[in-house]
Design goal:
Two copies of one chain form a homodimer. The first copy, chain A, is α/β, with parallel strands linked by helices and 541 residues long. Helix content of chain A is 30%, strand content 25%. In chain A, the strands form five sheets. Chain A has a nine-stranded mixed sheet, with helices on both faces. The first copy, chain A, has an eight-stranded mixed sheet with strand order 7-6-5-3-4-8-9-19, sandwiched between helices. The relative contact order of chain A is 0.08. Chains A and B meet through helix 1, helix 7, strand 16 and helix 14 of A and helix 1, helix 7, strand 16 and helix 14 of B.
Chain lengths: 541, 541
Amino acid sequence: MTNIYEQDLDRNPANHIPLSPLPLIERSASVFPNRPSVIHGSRRYTWFETWSRARKLGSALSSRGLGKGDTVAVMLPNIPEMFECHFGIPMTGAVINALNTRLDATTIAFILNHGEANVLITDREFSPTISVALSELDREITVIDVDDPEYIGDGKRLGNQTYEELLAEGEPFYEGRDPDDEWDAISLNYTSGTTGNPKGVVYSHRGAYLGAVGNPLTWSMPQNPTYLWTLPMFHCNGWTFPWVLAALTGTSVCLRNVTAANIFGAIAEEGVTHFCGAPVVLGLVINAEEAERRAFDHSVEIMTAAAPPPPAVLERIESMGFRVTHVYGLTETYGPSTICAWHPEWDALEPVARAKVKSRQGVRYPIAEGLMVADPNTLEPVPQDGDTMGEVFFRGNLVMKGYLKNPTATEEAFRGGWFHSGDLGVWHPDGYIELRDRSKDIIISGGENISTIEVEGVIFGHPKVLEAAVVARPDEKWGETPCAFVTLKPGESATADEIIQYCRDNLAHFKIPRTVVFTDLPKTSTGKIQKFKLRDQAAAL
Amino acid sequence: MTNIYEQDLDRNPANHIPLSPLPLIERSASVFPNRPSVIHGSRRYTWFETWSRARKLGSALSSRGLGKGDTVAVMLPNIPEMFECHFGIPMTGAVINALNTRLDATTIAFILNHGEANVLITDREFSPTISVALSELDREITVIDVDDPEYIGDGKRLGNQTYEELLAEGEPFYEGRDPDDEWDAISLNYTSGTTGNPKGVVYSHRGAYLGAVGNPLTWSMPQNPTYLWTLPMFHCNGWTFPWVLAALTGTSVCLRNVTAANIFGAIAEEGVTHFCGAPVVLGLVINAEEAERRAFDHSVEIMTAAAPPPPAVLERIESMGFRVTHVYGLTETYGPSTICAWHPEWDALEPVARAKVKSRQGVRYPIAEGLMVADPNTLEPVPQDGDTMGEVFFRGNLVMKGYLKNPTATEEAFRGGWFHSGDLGVWHPDGYIELRDRSKDIIISGGENISTIEVEGVIFGHPKVLEAAVVARPDEKWGETPCAFVTLKPGESATADEIIQYCRDNLAHFKIPRTVVFTDLPKTSTGKIQKFKLRDQAAAL
C-alpha cells in the first residue's frame, strides 16, 4: 500500500536532474567568466574560454559521430587540453579514457584495444611510445595531436589533425548532452596492476559529481582556490579534481615538469593554495636547494596519499608553511576515500607521535558511506584493537561501477556487497584504519602474519638506507620468512648483519628478515615497486 | 543496443547507496565522538551523545510502530531535542514535520490534520497554543512533552510522557533504517502563505543530503565550524543546516531567545564562526547597546536571506568583524538556492555601490542546476538587461518533491518542467538576478509594471519612516495606482505630501504613490506583511 508521501510526488524535470559535473563548468563560466581557469606557462585561459574550448571539442567530436557508449582516449600531461577533455568528451555522452603517460607501448595498445577507443588525443612528447602502440593496434583509431607551444622537446605529430584544428571545427555554443542517467559512465581508468593485464575501472557521472562536491567538503577547500597540478590528471582523473575546480571556480596551475623550482615558482607567483601529490613531491619540496626556493606568505595545503613522510620530514615541511593532509584510496574508489581526519588535540603531540597518528589512513570520507577492516572470507569485521589484521573494504557512492568487460573480476571485487580493496590493515580503537600490506604481499611465517610495510618502515629508519622492499621467501620450516631488498644511499656501504641487527632492536623476533639483498629495486612505470619480481628473486636464492 | 558501458556494470550494494543525511551523523559520532555537537546553556552534548539520543528517539518511535510513510510533528524552539529530531525521526523511515512555533492554534490544527501526524513532540512553552490546537484536531495523536531545564517560563505538560521518558524506552544502539530510495520523503514543511491554507512542501533524503554537502561548498564553510542557531530549525529545516553540521562535525550553539546579548555572548564564549539569519538578526547585532556587546578576535560569517541591509548597515556590521553573504530561496527550494557570489573586484566599490551589488539575489548554487528569469506563461527567458521583469524559475536537485496531497498545486508549480517561484525579478547583464516583487503584488499602472519593492525601498529611505508597504489601488483611469501604507518612527510625524514629494525626487513619475496611509502594518505570525489585507483597505479607500 502506498503512503501519502508516495502519491503525486514523483521525480520530474523540475526537481530531479542526473547528478553530473557538467553543469558545474557551465556555472563557473557563467558566474565568473573572466576568472582564470587554467594557467600553463604563458598560456592563460578564463573560465569562459575553457568552457568555450570544451564545447568546441565536444561539438567537433559529436560531429564526427562520437557519443554515448564511445571511448575517447587521451595521452596528455597536465596541460589545458587535458583539463578541457574532462568536460568536452563527457559532454558528448562519450567516456574519457586518460592513459598513464608512463606506460609502455604494448600496455597502451592493450588498453586502446580493450577500451575500444575511437579517438586518441595525444601529446607530441609521447609520440615515440604512441607510434609503436598504434602499430600494435588491431582497430581503426582517429589520432589527434596536441602540439603544446610550451613544449619545445622532441616528438612528432602522428595524426592528420591537431587539437586546435579539431576545435576550429566545433561550435563554441554547442550545448552538449546531459547524461540520460547519472549512472552513465563518464570515465575509464586502467589500474596499473603490478601483474597481469590492467583492468578498466569505470566511473559514473554520479560518482564524479559526488567526488567534485565531496573532496572540498572533506578537505575544507573554499571557493576560488588556486590549485597546482602535480598529481597527474590521468591518475583517477586527478582524484576528480578537474571537476572539483569547476565546482569551486578554482584556478588550475599546470606543470609539464614537476620540479622543486616549478612548485615554488607557482606558489610564489600564482599564489597556489592547494595541491595533491605523492610523497615523492613532498620530497622534492623538502630537498629543494636554496636557489630553487621562493618565499611565500600564505599557508599551502597538501593532500598526499600512500605512505606519508616520516616525522622529521613532516615537521620540516610543516615549518616551511605547508599543511599536510593524509588520505587513502584506490582507482576503484575515485582516488581518496579515507582521510586521517585531524583532531586538534593531536597538535600537542611531540613530532614522532604526531607523525605516527598522521601516518594512519584514517576514516571514511563523509561522502563514502561504508569502510571496514574485516575477514576477507567471512566479511566479519575485525576487532578495533590496532592489532588484528584484516582486509580493507569500502561500500557506497565513491565506489566504481565495475571493471569494463570483466564481469568475473567485477563480481569478485564486489562479493558480499562490499568492495574488496586487496589492502590489509588494522583497525585502531578510535576507528582509524592503518594499512599493513597488500593481501598478496603479506608474509605468513610460522602461522603469524608479518606486515611487509611494518618491516620496511623499520629498515627505512636505518640511516644508510635509501629504499627497501620486503617480500616472502619460501622456507621449509616456517612456510615463509621475510627477505629484504635494500638500496643504500649513494656512497654508503653496509652488511646484511648490520641491517638485521638494526631490525632486531626494533621488531618482534619473527618479523626480522632472515635474508638481506643489496640491490636496485624494480619498479613499474608509475614508480610502484614490482614485488612479484622480488618474490621470484627471493625464491631463487 | 546496449554499449560496452551498459554491460555488467550495474548498481549494487557495494557501489550505490541512497543519498541521505543519516550516514553523516554516524560518521561524526564515530570519528569525533567527544567533540561538542550541541550546546544549550548549561547543557552540552558530544556527537556520540547526540547520536545516541537520536537513536534512542528513533528506537522508541519505531517500537511504537512509527515508520515509513508516517509523520512526526515537532513544535520546538532551537534546542538540542529539535536537532536530535532531525535525525531520530527520519532514522525510523518517518517524516519530520517541524511546525512554525509562531503559528496560531487553528493553523497548527490544520497542519496536524493535513499532514496526518501520529505523534507531536512539543515544548512546554507552546502549550497555550498547542492545547487549543489539540482540541480542534479530528484525529488521534500521541503528545510528547519537552520540558527543557533551560526554560523557566510558563506552560504545562500536555501529554502522558516526556521526551526524556520516551528516550529512556529506546535503544542507544538502534540501527535505524536507511531510505529504500533516496527519493523517499525526509521532511514536511508548510509554507506560511499569506493567503489560503498552508501547503505542505515535501523534501527527499536526496535533496537533504545535497543541501548538507552543497551549503558548505557554496559558503566555503570548513570542517568543524561553530554554528549559532538564530534561524529557526522549523524554517526549511534550518535551511538544511542540522544536516550540514553532521557533514562537517560542527558544533551547534542553541539560543531559545535571540537577543543581541545572547548573540555576542555565544560569539565571545563559544567562538561562533557562522550563523544564518534574517535581516532582523543583523539589526539586533548593529543596534546592540554597549553593555550587550562583547569583544571577539575572529571573523564571523553571516548568511542572510530576504532583503539585505542597506549600505550604511552593511558597512557598519562588516566593520564590526562580520562578513555578510546574501542568499535567496524558498521553502520549495530547501531554503537558499541562489547566492550573490562575490567578485573580489567588488571590494573596491564605494559602500553604496557595494551594497547595491550585494543586494542582488545572485546566481544559482553550484548544486542547483537551473535558474532563470522568464515569461510566466511562455517560460521564454527575459533578456539579461537588468530591466525586463519576469518570474524567477528553478529546476534541479534542490527543488522539493512537491506539495503533499495537493497534485493540482504541484502540477501548477512545476508546469513546463520548471518550478514557478511566484517571485518577480530582473536579470542583469552579468547573469545575476534581482527580485522585484511577488507576482501577485506587482502593480500595473497604465500598462506599466511597478515593483512595490522598488517604491518601498525609496520610502524606507525617508528619515522619519520605520516601515512601509505599497500595494495596488484600483483606478478607473490607470487600472491601478500605487498606494503606500507607512508606519513612522516613534515620536515622528509627517504628511502624505511630504512622503509623495520625497518619492518624486527619487522615482519615475508613474511609480509615485497617489495615496499614503499612516498606520501599523498587519503581519503574519512569521512577520510577513499581509498585503492582501492592505489591498482590501486600499480598494475601500
